[in-house]
Amino acid sequence: MCGRYNLVDNDDTQSLMDDLKVSIGRTDITDFYNLAPTDQIPVIYEEDGARALRPMKWWLTPGWAKEVTTRYSMFNARAESLERSKAFKGSFRHHRIIIPMTSFIEWREKESTRRPYLIKYLKGCMAAAGIWSQWTDGNIVLDTCAMITTSALSEFKFIHSRQPLLLNSFQANIWLKEKSDLINLRKILRSSLPQNISLKQIATTINNSRLKEPPRYLINYPEIIIQASK
Asked: What does pTM read for this prediction?
């Protein structure tokens, strides 16, 4: 799973915007820290052939739902069951997004404690696959989204059994295209690691989702490097 992440406006982030041909809203990026489910997050989507950055609520509400609720966990969507899920299958086919991330946080359970790790590319901005839906009651219009997760690669499983579906630029462009072939989309739904990543333990202050400031490294803990998929 992935329940926290950061997005910083830097050269890597702007390079991803270039790669994905984002033409609208990219100047709205600021530094976002400790983004959590139910927060408004910046996502990339395509409409009528144009790519735009826009905010959406990170907790998907299907368009057919009777009400907006957090009763069910809807901020992550499992890649393995996207096409079988009543809540997600329509969005998978018609409403796909990319969630840009500078880094994300995962918790490793060890000796009855949960230790947070900051996970990021050694160079570059992450492109995480997601889906979105629009809900309305006739008065309120709400755009909501979920991040797609896959079974973790073996090298990553010591941290968690799940990971975000991370895409390279070629895959991300296919994912965003409104009329992408379903066969090509299915090929993307596999665990991968487009680039080398760094993992390093951080302070547990990150556990407080209301704390929107840069994560603090624990300097006495080593950095772990995991190599990109071959």
From this structure: 0.96
